[in-house]
Input
Amino acid sequence: MNEATQAAAGAVKPAIVASAEREEFLTFTLGKEEYGIEILKVQEIRSYEAVTRIANAPDFIKGVVNLRGIIVPVVDMRIRFNLGEANYDQFTVVIILNVAGRVVGMVVDGVSDVIQLPAERIRPAPDFSASSFDTSYITGLGTMDDRMLILVDIEKLMGGADMALVEQATVQ
Output
């Protein structure tokens, strides 16, 4: 390898490392707050449509929809996070996720955009361990200009005991 080739290889390597240190998130809103989830978990984004209710399901499980032959449980995140009354309008969307090999729908007030956050813009989540509510699914807080994003580990959130309720509700 000559000097020019080594220099070119050295010039490319930092760019690859820099891109690996950036994470891509789909940002969405719930009320006035903005959240981010890893873009690789997102299968598609759909407008909100009526769901089939499942008896005895928790309030945050709106029901199920048939998505091209797959029965998909739909979770309303505003209800799940106790953020008040869910109002469905033209901006309400369902983010279809692939979580732990399952397809799940997540109702949110609206989708903002896809952003890349470098590692230095992601701060650790505050420690709420002494509190009575579970925040283990919050991976950190991302900052971009004047925006703050609550970064959510969607696998942890949807893969917990609540998802077991979703599975039970859809097989009954």
In short: The first helix runs from residue 3 to 20. The radius of gyration is 19 Å. Confidence is low (pLDDT under 50) at residues 1-19. The CA atoms of residues 6 and 12 lie 10 Å apart.
